[in-house]
Model the fold of this input.
Amino acid sequence: MTEKEYNRCVDLFADRLYRFIVKNLKHEEDAKDIVQTTFEVLWKHRGEVACEKGRAYLFTVGYRNMIDHLRRRKRLSLAEGPVEDTAAGDADPHDLKAVLAHALERLSDVQRSLLMLKDYEGYSYAEIAAITGLNASQVKVYLHRARLKMRAYLVKRENVI
Amino acid sequence: MQINEENYEDLMLSWLDGELEGSDLDAMKQFLRDHPEKKKELETLRMTILPQEEMPFPGRQLLYRERKLKWFLPAAAAAAAVLLALFLLPSRSPSVRQATPVAARTRPSAPGHPALPSYATRPSHASPGLHASNTDVVKPAAPDVPPGGAGHKPEHKAVSAPGFAAAAAAPPLSHRARQRRNRLRQISETPAPENETRPTALPPLRAPSGLHVPASVPIAVNAPELPPARSSPQADSHQVSALPAGKATLASIGEARQKMDHTLTEKIGEIQYKMSHPFDLLRGREIRIGNVSFAFNK
Done:
C-alpha cells in the first residue's frame, strides 16, 4: 500500500470505522483514540497490506482495539448474556431511529458489533468471521438472535410497533 | 431445501442478511406466496435493519500522512542546513579561542598586518626566578603539584594584549596558585647542595652534582629566512644563552628550560602563521621568472 493508497483509505473508511467504534463504545474521545491508533497500525504495516484489503484490515484492527478497550473497562460480556427487555424509556415512540438505538443498546457487545458490521458495512458472514475471530456459523447464529431480540423489543406494545 | 414452519424464520433472517441465494431463495419466495400471513413477519424483521447514518470522524486531518510530510520535509531540510553551517563555520567564540594553544595564536608583525603585542612584551608580574620569562602560570583546576614542581609545565599562559579576549578574562592567581608559585620560586632560588640528588626535580634536565655545563647552549632552531618578530631581546636571539658557566643549579636549569620552551613556542607560532598566510612572505618582494618580473605590494 502506497502513501496515496493509505490516504485513500482515510478518505473512504475513517468515517465508517469511527461510526462503528463510537456506536459500540458510546464515547467519542475513546472512539477517536481507537480510530487514530488503528490508522497508525495500518500506516506502520502498509507495506504488508494490499490496498484492496485495507478496509478489512482497518475493521479487524479497530474491532480488536475496541474489544481490548472494553475489556479494560470491564464492560464486555463475551458470552451472550440475558438482555433486559424493558421499554424504550425516554425514546420517542414515534421516532423509529431513536427506538432502534435503544434496542441496539440492549444487545450484547458482540451482537451489536456483528449487527453493525452486517448492516452498516454489508460484510458477509465469512468476512465478519474473519474480522471478529468467530466462525461463520457463530456469526450467523449471533446475528439471528440479535435480530430476534431487536424485533421483540420493537413489537412491544409500549414501543413503536 | 424444503421450507416449513420449523425453519422458515431462520431462512427469512438469512434472506434479510443477503445470505440466501439460488434455489434456497426461490424456495423462500415460494413459501411466502404460499403463506402470505408470514409477509408481515418478514416486514417486522426487516425493521431491525439499521438505517445508514453519516458520522464524520472529527480528527480526519490527523490521519493523513501526505500533508504532514509537506511541511516536515522543508523544515527538516532547513534544520539540517543550519546544523551543517554551524559545523562548517569556524568558531569565533572567546571560549574556543581561549582553549587554543598560545603558539597557534602567536602572530608576528608581518607587513600589512598590525603588529600584535605578544606575550613576550608583556610586563612581567613575576619576580625573577623560575618565571623570569614573562609568563604567569595559571592552573586553576589542576590538582596540587607536589612541592618541587616535578614535571611541572605551564598549561595555560595568560596573555594580556588587545585582540585576545582570553587575556582580558584571565583570572588572577588563586591563593593556592600563589602558594604553589612561591614554593616553586623558593625551590628555584635555592642553590643545589653539592651532594643533592633529587629525582623528582626536572628529571630530563637534572644536573648531577659536579656537572660542568658549557657556557652557552645553542638551541637548534635555525630559521634564518624568518624575520625576527619579537621586540623582546630574549626572543630576538634565536640562540638562548641559558646556562651560566660553572656548576649548574636547579635555578639555572629551570630558567634555561623556561627560555627554551618560550623560544620554541614562539617559533612554532610563527611557522604556523606563515603556513596559514603564505602570501605574506611575498609582500614587498619581486620575483623574476625569465624576462617577466612580479612585484608584490607591501
